[in-house]
Design a protein that fits this description.
The protein has helices spanning about 1-10, 40-45, 80, 120-135, 165-175, 190-205, 275-280, 285-290, 300-315, 320-325; strands at about 30-35, 55-60, 65-75, 90-95, 110-115, 140-150, 155, 160-165, 175-180, 215-220, 230. The chain has about 350 residues and is α+β, with helices and mostly antiparallel strands. Strands 1-2-3-4-5-8-6 form a seven-stranded mixed barrel. The protein has a three-stranded antiparallel β-sheet with strand order 9-10-11. The chain starts with a helix and ends in a 19-residue tail after the last helix.
Length: about 350
């Protein structure tokens, strides 16, 4: 079987693309990808300024194989630089001419998330992206992929991965624009969107983010607003994922990533949170449906993810505990005002 597949893939390397254009992120099916080229050099390139390598991207959808030339390099910070990760994240760079008429039509750059220390943690991170999509379209769409590497006519075993929507496409889809040249504080963002994002981070137990340093946050503006919308990404250091390498920033004084800490802004009255609490409670069943329908999670991960969400909703129903959690940023003796600049490997 493998020999036959390698032969097909080798033929595809010189066969023009012939698939019809469709929405890459419109399908929930697993997309089968093969990266062909100097894969070893690509994955070993962990330096601060990684090199782009010419590759062929081969994929199968609807029982049809197709291929285009691309460039690829490693990306990210912790997962790229950390010696603990088997595979670093990869950035796929597309040619506008090569993608015409293909599944990747109009794509420019896509982030490919690969397993660091086990595929189940990639699959849990995919759940986090799907959970945020329940709340708002102002979010990164994601697609599950199965990735293989082809080098010197040798085809690797498949591994689980995630393709993330290009940030410019995400902004354009919401009729908004991205900017990276402005200094923005949490108080400067759209209040409703910030509260929703901060409550979501609390739900999944993620503390590895900040608006000021754009740490795992993108900011986008609508044409008629001066207040940007924060959009979160990279959830591998969250309690929901509980990756073995994940540790909270030492400055936060947390025992583990599974310990929740609200990292929004200080509010004078807990009633300020009533609308966002009501929103999350109204989406409770939709959140759990995401988990129940995640057939790619093994039994242990499925139970863990649902149990972790249960902990959040139990907290929402405990008024005293909820007040303590949400008002923590107002405690002058606490770590509520710590700003995360980025975790070091």
């Amino acid at each position: 079987m493998y020999k036959w597949l390698v032969l097909v893939l080798l033929l595809l390397r010189v066969t023009p693309s012939c698939s019809q254009a469709s929405g890459l992120f419109d399908s929930d099916s697993v997309l089968h990808l093969v990266l062909s080229g100097d894969v070893r050099q690509l994955l070993r390139d962990r330096k601060d300024d990684p090199t782009y390598y010419p590759m062929s991207l081969i994929w199968r959808e609807a029982e049809q194989w197709d291929t285009i030339p691309i460039r690829a390099r490693t990306r990210g910070h912790f997962r790229r630089q950390s010696g603990a990760c088997t595979y670093p994240p990869v950035l796929l760079n597309f040619s506008s001419e090569a993608v015409k008429g293909t599944l990747f039509n109009r794509q420019n750059k896509l982030k490919l998330v690969l397993p660091c220390q086990g595929e189940k943690y990639v699959e849990r991170e995919f759940v986090a992206y799907k959970l945020y999509q329940v709340l708002t379209p102002k979010s990164f769409r994601a697609r599950r992929v199965e990735v293989q590497f082809l080098e010197n006519d040798r085809l690797s075993k498949p591994i689980a991965g995630i393709l993330l929507e290009d940030e410019s496409e995400m902004a354009a889809r919401n009729d908004m624009v991205l900017r990276g040249d402005l200094v923005v504080r949490p108080e400067d963002t759209n209040p409703e969107d910030f509260l929703r994002m901060a409550m979501f981070q609390l739900m999944i137990g993620n503390t590895d983010w900040s608006v000021q340093y754009r740490q795992n946050i993108k900011l986008m503006w609508s044409k008629n607003s001066v207040n940007p919308v924060p959009v979160p990404y990279d959830f591998d250091h969250s309690g929901l994922v509980s990756a073995p390498y994940a540790r909270p920033a030492a400055e936060l004084e947390l025992s583990s990533v599974r310990e929740r800490r609200y990292r929004g802004t200080c509010q004078p009255d807990v009633k300020h949170f009533d609308p966002v609490i009501a929103e999350f409670q109204s989406k409770r069943e939709a959140f759990f449906n995401v988990c129940r329908q995640a057939g790619y999670l093994d039994d242990t991960s499925g139970k863990f993810v649902q149990g972790y969400l249960e902990g959040f909703f139990k907290m929402l129903s405990n008024k005293n505990r909820l007040k303590e959690v949400l008002m923590y940023p107002c405690d002058p003796t606490g770590t509520g005002n710590v700003v995360i600049k980025g975790l070091k490997p």
